[in-house]
Design brief:
alpha/beta, 5 strands, about 15% strand, globular, binds adenosine-5'-diphosphate
């Protein structure tokens, strides 16, 4: 199996690049944001509880997203590998993911960390909010809270994987295709090694 984490702040392009990467490498895309939004669309109790947290720009509890990822791994036993997008977002989530993957006798091969300036993130998210229908993308205060949550709780996840030498920084500004090419170069370097 080949498992990778696409890492970066809100608005860094993880969703866009994930779609292209899963198509090229035949990976199963696991986005906790997408999973949560399907729960909201289904109006499940989990979705309703998550929505009020997401609309404030905060992180939903670790147990909730860890359980969602656990089920997704169980439901895809045939996958060639997974691309994690928006997960793990805390050190506790990273530790839980490592355990779940170890039970399947696999691990994270690489963490690709997209680098984008804060001004660019805010402008991309406000722009996305005009058409995405995502309530967390329309209010600049919510966007700023999400970036703050990232800085306070999620940025340290890169330090966690850095201990295992798994993090590669990739410039997240430029055209979609330029960024995709840089990501593919890093993946190819890892898989050929
Ligand atoms: P973005 O990367 O633009 O913030 P996501 O779709 O990844 O978009 O996440 C949207 C929201 O869903 C987050 O602000 C957060 O409230 C919640 N969320 C998604 N993934 C996680 C996670 N792994 N842990 C906690 N909350 C999460």
């Amino acid at each position: 199996m080949f498992n990778l984490i696409l890492f970066g702040p809100p608005g860094s392009g993880k969703g866009t690049q994930s779609e292209k990467l899963i198509a090229r490498y035949g990976l199963k895309h696991l986005s906790t944001g997408d999973l949560l939004r399907s729960e909201i669309a289904a109006q499940s109790p989990l979705g309703m509880a998550a929505k009020s947290i997401m609309d404030k720009g905060q992180l939903v509890p670790d147990e909730v997203v860890i359980e969602m990822i656990n089920s997704a791994l169980e439901n895809n036993p045939q996958a060639r590998g997974f691309l994690f997008d928006g997960f793990p977002r805390t050190t506790a989530q990273a530790e839980a993911l490592d355990k779940l993957l170890a039970q399947k006798e696999t691990e994270i091969a690489v963490v690709l960390a997209l680098q984008v300036s804060k001004e660019e993130l805010i402008s991309r998210l406000l722009n996305r909010g005009k058409s995405s229908g995502r309530s967390d993308d329309t209010n600049e205060l919510v966007i700023r809270s999400r970036i703050e949550e990232y800085e306070m709780k999620t940025a340290v996840v890169a330090d966690y994987y850095n201990k295992f030498n798994k993090v590669v920084m990739v410039k997240g500004e430029g055209t979609i295709d330029e960024i995709f090419d840089s990501l593919c170069d890093e993946i190819d370097a890892k898989t050929e090694a």
